[in-house]
Amino acid sequence: MRLQNLWYPTDKVFIDGQWQASASGKTLDLFDPSTGAVLAKIARGNADDIDRATASANAALSGPWSRLSAAERGRLMLRLSNLILERADDLAIIEAHDVGKPLKQARADALAMARYFEFYGGAADKVMGETIPYLDGYTVYTMREPIGVTGHIVPWNYPMQILGRSVGAALAMGNCTVLKPAEQACLTALALGSLASEAGFPDGVLNIVPGLGDEAGAALSAHPDIHHISFTGSVATGRLVQTAAAQNVIPATLELGGKSPQLVFEDADLEQALPFLVNAGVQNAGQTCSASSRILVARSIFDQVAALMAARYAALKTGPAMEDLDIGPLISSTQQAIVAGFLERGADLEILAKGQLSETADQGGYYQPPVLLKGDDPAHELAQDEIFGPVQLLLPFEDEDEALAIANGTKYGLVASIWSKDGARQMRLARGLRSGQVFINNYGAGGGVELPFGGVGHSGHGREKGFEALYGFSSLKTVAALHG
Ligand code: NAD
Fold it and tell me: Is 155 close to ligand 1, i.e. is its CB under 6 Å away?
């Protein structure tokens, strides 16, 4: 497959089941991060396109979609999942060019998107209400209903995974959706439009309007005719999205990244821990909301862990996505400058190791080989702020109390992990860590779509993934019948 020859148009918006020119007729350039060359033109959707998409989704709410049983809805989603699987290789190539991900990671993302539609397709007819014992003469029960039209604003770092978890859960609950993918990378999101049509989704159930954040994104989050907004991205934009949602008194799910720590104790199995310690920080060039950018290590084994990680770093190769090395480029020259700025401001930190840049890396690409740093001040900017690049900081701690204080000492709280064989310590810390997910002797548990995910503090609120997301994308109705 050649990228010039995709099976769907890239420069259109997808509204009411049709590919259409954007209202303004304007387009934006997408760049291949591995080379810096223009990859494709996408539509520059604006408020008028969002208006049409929202109207289409609202109309679809009372169309054939609303008359499908939950099982039929689930079957459509399983069909979509199968179509994604059939196209997984193509989607991986598209994503590798669009996001700069090493091909293997891009393929894993395509499989994860298919798995989300499979999981939520299977779950669609398994979301139940309850009967509630109440006063004599009453029968009381609850029903979970669709919220209505859900808006989804997704970032560029994991387009397929994030739209799978967000749009997948919303569709399973019977909502109609408007998706605003990121302007830096949105080709696989557009592919989903064509695959949803092929699967047989009624027109208007899934609408896709690419465009700029402050145009299409702002218009979607402020639209009076959406009933829920799901946002993944930066804290600054999350605030704007939540403020806009508040004006319309609708719920907002915010997933805003983190500064996720791994806590390594004296009794940790370092051989087991080592790949997780490093991969969790450099995967996707560190552009992962749940990236582990802080490694907190017991002082007695600090030098040993530092040496082991440094040796691994030295072997890491950064290069073009299609060469499928360990690490690809960053998404953009802007992101490259952001990461370089952090490294400049962290010049007082000791550099323990750097990865290699492949000699095949194009001069125009947005490369940043990984950097492993050592610090001793948990208040340092690089120990506090999300860098969103392949940079990890090692910090020592004296004892469990200090480890916990450092781990909880940022404004974020998305993911944390504990490396220790001491069961009591594991339980104490799992309770004490201020974090949406805690992993014990692993990190990420393979990404499991079944596992509720989301943050506390500036990492956001609301949960995606697992059944929890279905509850978030539904409205609970209580019915109380007085029958004597
Ligand atoms: P961003 O928050 O600006 O963009 C994310 C999404 O929001 C994109 O689709 C964008 O078009 C949209 N958006 C932008 N402005 C908007 C607005 N005013 N209203 C509604 N939607 C809007 O993030 P970015 O500029 O792409 O990246 C900047 C930083 O954000 C990164 O350095 C990183 O720290 C963080 N980030 C985090 C995640 C994550 O998964 N948590 C993802 C991407 C970026």
Answer: yes
| Per-residue pLDDT at 1 | 64
- DSSP at 202: P
- The answer to whether residues 229 and 300 belong to one domain is no
Domain region containing 8: 3-256
**Closest residue CA from atom 38 of ligand 1:** 233
CA distances, 313 to each of 229, 309, 310, 376, 406 (Å): 39, 6, 5, 20, 24
Closest to 187 measured CA to CA, from 104, 116, 101? 101
318: in domain: yes
Residue that finishes a domain, picked among 200, 228, 256: 256
Q: How far apart are CA 176 and CA 203, in angstroms?
A: 10
The answer to whether residue 266 is catalytic is: no
* pLDDT the model gives residue 248: 98
Question: CA-CA distance, 470 to 70, in Å (whole number)?
Answer: 13
Atom of ligand 1 nearest to the CA of 212: 11
Q: How many domains does the chain have?
A: 2
Active-site residue identified among 289, 386, 400, 464: 289
Q: Among 239, 256, 273, which residue terminates a domain?
A: 256
Q: What is the chain's alpha carbon radius of gyration, rounded to the nearest angstrom?
A: 23
Decide if 196 contacts 164 (C-beta within 8 A): no
Residue 113: CB partners within 8 Å, gap ≥ 6?
84, 91, 160, 161, 163, 164, 188, 192
Residue to substitute in 42, 99, 234 for testing ligand 1 pocket (most ligand atoms within 8 angstroms of CB): 234
Q: 């749940």: which residue's tokens?
A: 290
Judge if 218 and 292 occupy the same domain: no
Among protein residues, the one whose CA lies closest to atom 19 of ligand 1: 218
pLDDT digits (tens, 9 = 90+) for 194-232: 999 999 999 999 999 999 999 999 999 999 999 999 999
Residues in the chain with pLDDT values less than 70: 1-2
Q: Are residues 271 and 316 in the same domain?
A: yes
Same domain, 212 and 292: no
pLDDT value of position 21: 96
